Amino acid sequence: MGGYASVEKALKTKTPLEVVEEVKKSGLRGRGGAGFPTGLKWSFIDKKSGNPRHLVCNADESEPGTFKDRYLMEKIPHLLIEGMITSSFALEAHLSYIYIRGEYMWVFRILEKAIKEAYANGWLGKNILGTGYDLDVHVTCGAGAYICGEETALIESLEGKRGNPRIKPPFPAVVGVYGNPTVVNNVETIMDVPWIVNNGGEEFAKFGIGKSTGTKLISASGNIRKPGVYEIELSIPVEEFVMSDEYCGGCKPTDR
Questions:
Q1: Distance CA 228, CA 248 (A)
Q2: How far is CA 34 from the centre of its chain?
Q3: Do the strands 228-233 and 215-220 form a parallel or antiparallel pair, or are they unpaired?
Q4: Given this model, what pLDDT does residue 81 score?
Q5: How crowded is residue 210: how many other Cβ atoms within 10 Å of its Cβ?
Q6: What are phi and psi of 188, to 5 degrees?
Q7: Averaged pLDDT of the chain
Q8: Which residues, 6+ apart, have CB-to-CB distance to 184 below 8 Å?
Q9: How far is the CA of 155 from the CAs of 63, 166, 195, in angstroms?
Q10: What is the pLDDT of residue 40?
Q11: What does the alpha-carbon distance between residue 155 and residue 168 come to, in Å, rounded to a whole number?
């Protein structure tokens, strides 16, 4: 494995608050569906209670036809670990979790291997890069319950309970995993953070349109000529994405 450039940059040259502000500048919104501004969500985490804080990566991906997070974790798992470290530093979290759906058991093993490699190379554990920052990351499997894609049901399942959604308030940013302040972010969201830290939030914001900045991975399947995972700029109309030869190539001909 190579170096985690954004981790080194964040831990050695920035404060946690500066990383949060960079993500705010980027305009990055949650890539799990809700589209809430990521930096703003981070800023809500309770800093007054003195309780430990946690970052939880939502890798449940249970929506029909979705597979872009699975693809990311299969092909570039270390980018997720890098994003977990940089994002955890921004939140001043020292214990973070990746929650993956039970049907992704082979991906679970890929992530476990990547985490072990990160520990072995000094990117996780005590005193990372000699900066005094400590972080442990654990990956855990769900039991195949669709509802655990919802963040509070995910937290309940992570704690070993039945995955039922919690009544809000309190919100996870105040009372989350084991009663501690928690941020839950999607796989793709967390994997965008290293690029933002390395290149700057303003550079990320140059892509996209309006308040929808950056690029987005799309899972394309069904009755189309070219199914797959596509990265598009957030300014391309759905019709162009489906019909263009550059992307899905239009619908397959049918006998009907």
A1: 8
A2: 13
A3: antiparallel
A4: 98
A5: 8
A6: -60, -35
A7: 94
A8: 56, 57, 58, 151, 154, 155, 172, 176
A9: 18, 9, 27
A10: 96
A11: 13
Going from the C-alpha of 119 to that of each of 20, 48, 59, 73, 140, the distances in angstroms are 25, 30, 21, 18, 17
State the Cα–Cα distance between residues 185 and 93, nearest whole angstrom: 14
Written as one letter, the residue type at 107 is V
**At which residue do the structure tokens 């969201």 appear?**
189
188 in Cβ contact with 214 (< 8 Å):
no
- How far, in Å, CA of 218 to CA of 203, rounded? 22
Per-residue model confidence (pLDDT) at position 254: 75
* Distance (Å, whole) CA 67 – CA 221: 9
Q: Is the peptide bond before 165 cis (omega within 30 degrees of 0)?
A: no
pTM for the model:
0.94
What is the model's pLDDT at position 255? Answer: 59
Q: What is the spatial distance between Cα 241 and Cα 219, in angstroms, rounded to a whole number?
A: 11
